[in-house]
Amino acid sequence: MQNDWSRLEEISKKYNTVSGLMSYVNADTLMTEFKRQSGKKAKGIDGISKTEYEEKLKENLENLVERLKAFSYHPKPVRRTYIPKDNGKVRPLGIPSFEDKLVQGAMAKALESVYEHRFLNCSYGFRKGKNAHQCIGDMNHTLMFRKVNYVLDADIKGFFDNVEHNWLIKFLEHDIADKTYIRYIKRLLRVGVMEEGKHYETDKNVPQGGVISPTLANVYLHYVLDLWLEKRIKQNLRGEAYLYRYADDFAIMFQYEDDSKKIYQALIDRFAKFGLELAIDKTRIVPFGRYKGTKESFDFLGFRFINGRDREGSYRVHIRTSKKKLNLKRQIAKEWLTERMHKPIWQTLETLKLKLNGHVNYYGVNGNLRSVQNFFNYVKYTFYRVLRRRGQKKPIKFKDFIRIWDAAGFKPPKVCVNIWY
User: Fold this and answer.
1) Coil, strand or helix at 160
2) d(C-alpha 190, C-alpha 166), whole Å
3) How confident is the model at residue 92 (pLDDT cuts 50, 70, 90)?
4) Are the C-beta atoms of 146 and 242 separated by less than 8 Å?
5) Which of 102, 110, 225, 399 has its CA 20 to 30 A from that of 333?
6) Dihedral (C-alpha) 122, 127, 133, 138: value to the nearest 10 degrees?
7) Closest among 207, 247, 197, 186 to 94, alpha carbons compared
8) What is the mean pLDDT of the segment spanning 44-48?
9) Residue 246 belongs to what H/E stretch?
10) What φ, ψ does residue 303 adopt, rounded to 5°?
């Protein structure tokens, strides 16, 4: 199937609009999606897991393909649940049924093949060959070596819940001539959500948790933000400007303050046209750059960018773990370890090792090693204190804890990602 996706990419590069996308949603691509899906994910409203679907896999896929061809496939409403956010609030998450995940996955691959070469370089989220670390590294390079004096640190209020379906369909129709594919996209968008046994219809939103949702979100902001700024607005600015976007998180860097203020106001009107809204309380213009002192900072993708200098007095952008993220992670780690106070120690250590490795792999960038080490040690000594509370008569001694910790195979934190290229 990789050759098929490559062929679709070549066709997309050759023609302005692409047709025949639904032909790529077939038994082979659906089987590929089945293999790719995790069996540990939460179930949709039908309660069917990957294991249960696999019991009659061939029959289920054949039936699904027939329904897709006859246009009788109807996706089920997504099951809405909530996950905690950094600020103590919750984020809605939509969980599709397992069969719908297969269809969304195959449709998403087709969509990615059409849009990958159309997306601009300023977009980093959920794209082949791009990731958050590349975004952070490129931002660092621009702040260090380009004419940047101001940063518009922006936030879109409830982006995924406010994507207007009519506009999204218009954007897709601009590049896709397959009416059947577009009709299935409409069905996927308008299935609504199930919450506490009640069905809610909606004419806007792209459910977070849907397999195809990240790509649809990229398409929406590609037209609403990326193209608008890069192709229409930049040429009218007095100085240089650089956009960096990862999904719905973005920051714009400017040479001149009046340009940043102009774009700030223009963004409010631009977003309003497409049903979006800037979170004014989280959006600000930050004086930032080699000529703007050493005390300013802003957060992006879990990292804090700090205007500063190195030991020799030369200008340096310091990149650290965001204080907000770090405090939240410490709180979560402490609560999790406390809950597992009386669980088998070895099981806790194995899970903890995976969690710490994930933290180090993401936050272990150049210049942030001390912050990563501090979090590593915080978790280590918090676990020791929790185990001390577990033993009432004979609390565990520190030397015995260290022996167990070392035997579990914990490796000292290290820099995993080079962003100083």
Assistant:
1) helix
2) 11
3) confident
4) yes
5) 399
6) -20
7) 207
8) 92
9) strand 241-246
10) -115, 150
Q: Is there a contact between 159 and 183 (Cβ–Cβ < 8 Å)? A: no
CA–CA gap between residue 389 and residue 342 (Å, rounded): 10
Tokens representing residue 174 in the block: 């601009």
Q: Report pLDDT digits (tens) over 137-157.
A: 999 999 999 999 999 999 999
Residue 307's pLDDT is: 93
pLDDT of residue 88: 62
Using DSSP, state whether 359 is helix, strand or coil.
helix
Residue holding tokens 């907000």? 324
Q: Which of 83-97, 207-221, 287-301, 360-374 has the lowest mean pLDDT?
A: 83-97
- Which amino acid type is present at position 173? E
- Non-local (6+) Cβ contacts of 334 within 8 A are 382
Pairing of strands 241-246, 249-254: antiparallel
Report CA-CA distances (Å) from 185 to 77, 105, 190. Answer: 14, 12, 9
Start-to-end CA span in the chain (Å) = 34
Tell me what the mean pLDDT of segment 24-35 comes to: 95
